[in-house]
Amino acid sequence: MSENNTPQSDHLADRFTEKARAVSAIVEPVVDLDQAMAYCLDLCGRRGACRIKISGCDEALSQPADTLCDLKQEKIVAAPGLTQDQFASLAARCREQGMTCIRSGMREHLSGVDIGFTVADFGIAETGTLVINCPDEELRLATMLSEYHVCVLRRSTIVEDAFAADRHLLKFMRKTPDYTAFITGASRTADIERVLALGVHGPLELHILLLED
Amino acid sequence: MQDAKNLKEYRKEMQESLDNEFLRKSLDTFAVAYRASRAKAFAEIDVHGLIAEVAAAKDSVLPKLDELYDQFRKNAEAAGVQVHFARDAEEANAIIAEIAKATGSKKIVKSKSMTAEETLLNHTLEDHGLEVTETDLGEWIIQLRHEGPSHMVMPAIHLSRYQVGDLFSDVTGAKQEPDIEKLVKVARRELRSKFVEADMGITGANFAIADTGTIGLVTNEGNARLVTTLPRVHVALLGIDKLVPSLTDALRILKVLPRNATGQQITSYVTWITGANECAAAGNRKKEIHFVVLDNGRLEMARDPLFSQVFRCVRCGACANVCPVYRLVGGHKMGHIYIGAIGLILTYFFHGPEKAKNLIQNCINCEACKDICAGGIDLPRLIKQVHVRIQDEKGHPLPSLLLGQILKNRKLFHTLLRTAKWAQRPVSGEDGFMRHLPMMFFKEHDFKALPTVAEKPFRDRWQELARPIDNPRLRVGLFSGCVQDFVYPEQMEAAFHLFAEHRVAMSFPMAQSCCGLPVQMMGEAKASRDVAVQNVRAFEKENVDYIVTLCASCASHLKHNYPVLLGDDQKMLEKTKSFTAKVIDFSSFAHDVLGLKAEDFSGDGKPATFHSPCHLCRGLGVHEAPRALLRDAGLDYREADESEVCCGFGGTFSAKFPELSAEMLRKKLDHVEVTGAEILLTDCPGCVMQLRGGLKKRGSQIVVQHTAEALAARRRKPE
Description:
The complex is a heterodimer.
Chain A: H1 7-22, E1 26-30, H2 33-44, H3 63-70, E2 76-78, H4 84-96, E3 100-102, E4 113-119, E5 122-124, E6 129-133, H5 137-144, E7 146-154, E8 158-159, H6 166-174, E9 178-183, E10 188-189, E11 197-198, E12 205-211
Parallel strand pairs in A: 1-12, 2-3, 2-4, 4-7, 5-8, 7-12
Antiparallel strand pairs in A: 5-6, 6-9, 10-11
Chain B: H1 7-19, H2 21-41, H3 47-61, H4 65-78, E1 81-86, H5 89-102, E2 107-110, H6 114-119, H7 121-127, E3 131-134, H8 137-144, H9 161-172, H10 180-197, E4 200-203, E5 207-209, E6 214-219, H11 223-227, E7 233-239, E8 243-244, H12 247-262, E9 269-274, E10 288-294, H13 298-303, H14 318-321, H15 324-329, H16 340-351, H17 353-356, H18 368-372, H19 379-394, H20 398-408, H21 410-423, H22 458-465, E11 474-479, H23 481-486, H24 489-501, E12 504-507, H25 517-521, H26 525-540, E13 546-549, H27 552-565, H28 570-582, E14 583-585, H29 586-593, E15 607-611, H30 614-617, H31 624-632, E16 636-637, H32 652-656, H33 658-674, E17 679-682, H34 685-698, E18 703-706, H35 707-713
Parallel strand pairs in B: 1-10, 2-3, 2-4, 4-7, 5-8, 7-10, 11-12, 11-13, 13-14, 15-16, 15-17, 17-18
Antiparallel strand pairs in B: 5-6, 6-9
């Protein structure tokens, strides 16, 4: 894909940022993966994203829903897509701050995890969309069951529109079985009185960390 | 779900909607907000070009549906999916129930699928003792209420936060506040526990890509992702119309679908699934996946030369969003399962004529749906054609047959109109309105004053008017239509004087008759064709450059429907082509052809506004010409809100559904009054009748005129 910070890549990154922010995503630049991890920890700890009791569990719920809420007893960051070294580095930092970091066993946390930390395959500027190839169930679940989804996107991987990614997508699809996700902003609904509410079934917030590369 | 037995029962049901204040208010707000957000979503895109591309791509699929299905099946199977073909709803439901049984599934989570609504899948599964939970918030709400969706994309749009709060209080056994944020969170947690327990997940699909055997799901909430990930079995039920050759085709539809549906550039999630993915809950860590591809009347549609265009439907729901009737009555009264304009058509094909026979009449023919359709489907025409089919199958009602018979005989029709002048004597007032309605009308038709038939129709005034024009710039044949001929001949006269002064030579062929739109609207295909032939013949010997009509509905019908009505008649083909090519509406002729300018008028600065007839703005694509003329004529022109929304006349519609017509008129007049205009202009005698009658009933001083009258009254006399 394109060279570092050419006018074209600047244009794509700017457009991506504008479009993603328009649908409530939080977009921040980071210089390296290290800074992205620091962002994740800061969000979890200082900024209070990680709570023992996750959203909705304060409401008056039915017995089964309440029981499921009770399953979660710790602050959890799930990062299944990282390499061994990357994961080790993140997990060590989490431990320091009293958080649990996992890269597998998502099904033991169906009640939900606080943060899903992932790396996108590429981005689509036209709509501010992240593309995540996730035939791996752990990775898939981390993007679905997290209260906050923090996703690293390499600037150089942003393409103009979905058509420009056609061949890339086909490569995923032809390597079966495949599960590829377009993710644009947080989970949303307008099903009650057409009032927009974020975080129905998926993440309440989507944080995109644009990585200089 | 609309299933009234007859029109009377149907009208009663609609009255319930009209009385539902919450529904009315939310649909009003939605109608206005939707237009703005859609425009914003398409701001950077050539909408018409994109729609044409979608239509062409969808059409090109039709001849190779069989091959595409085979290709899709092979590729999906190669990736570990089991593919089933279901001829009808019953078969599809049976297949899915059998899968549940074979896999030992007891609990099922579903994400929103209109196709599953169509087959009433939940009923079958529940009959088999399975627990089915809808996980889309709106679908879950209506499932708990035992209702059908009232919109294709927003199924619970008819409900308030209070109703949802009460419902969730029942579900959780604890009092819930009517706070939307909180209610959404309650649903999040309640449904999460359903996801965790489920054995099987059922989804629909927005795309089935033949090239890769992939399905695509377009969603916002994220429930479809969980439905396709957590349970060990996944069943996708999809119509065979969802087949596309390649990913590029799917991406093209994806470009138009969310923008047209909700004004989003893209939904929060688009999920592409190819083959049996990893699933830790399954024995061999591989999910069991089944695709059930449904026919249920679709293949019959695909083979039909006219109805095959229905295959272009991407189920965005936009045709409901802009429909003035939907806006009044909501989805439960505007569809059986599928809603809006496309719903009227699909009901006939998927659920049969009995379910469609009342619904199909509830189209005011304003063409707002055709204008917005993501696939460029000619929805109003298809609706009329379904009406024709149902009448042919089930018999024609007497009034419709009679009108058809009468219109075919111009002399008889015109004699009847002349006789009406005498029949109305006892009830007509001095002011050109009927003092009260004759017995034939019921009280609910009393929302507007009706005009009396003119003393002398235009055709009888013609001999006195007609005069030779020296050195004419243009030759024009006048087409009056029935209303201007027999009710408002003064509108024709105004145009005559205006044109004559600008050296237009005119003729008025006496053999012309009604344009035929009323019988077309009533589903009388034969009569509609017969009058078309009469009118083309009436003008064939006239040596004219243009055929001008002051009625936008006539103009649009002559121009766009005649070629279709007479298209299969080799003898008429050339004549019809030459006829329709000359047809033009009043404002376009006066502004674009005649080139009338400010110096042609001496205006009086009166505040004026314009109601754009449906068949002018959408039927003929004319927007600027009348407004420019009014400004040039020296009027203080003020644009009214929703000036291009239907006034509620719709010809025979206002007689069939007076309650709806009255309500559309009320909105229209409210918008007009806000402008402070003293004159309301329009380009259609039917609209004049509706607007003038409504304002008279309100006791308003606003004068309603045809644009031609306003211009003629302000023309600067040659020195």
